[in-house]
């Protein structure tokens, strides 16, 4: 199957100054993962700390996509920031669950739910 048959579409919007909503459409695999990673790296470069990854239009994701999600998760945590997966398709959710990624990276049904999690995490001060 060629890339032309499964193009990746990535759209980035900013619900808040430090939050990037990355809406992905298409197969997230070895052929398309580099493009996905470039969009995330660009948002990190521009100071985004929180990433909402809308995977509701991703019918297939392999380990390449999963590794990029984990990599941006690690980078965001160092800022400190966060990564949230929004409304993954059943096939993608299964991959996230089977690999344990869903234990580490929060999964929300809606963007507003993830934004509420970000707000709660910023309101709870860490105790020394």
UniProtKB/TrEMBL annotation:
Q: Where is the STAS domain?
A: 17-118
Gene3D superfamilies, sorted: STAS domain
Record-linked InterPro entries: Anti-sigma_ant, STAS_dom, STAS_dom_sf
PROSITE patterns for the chain: STAS
**UniProt-listed Pfam families:** STAS
| Source domain of life | Bacteria
Q: Would you identify the family this protein belongs to, as annotated?
A: Belongs to the anti-sigma-factor antagonist family.
Q: What is this protein called?
A: Anti-sigma factor antagonist
Source organism per entry reads Streptomyces phaeoluteigriseus
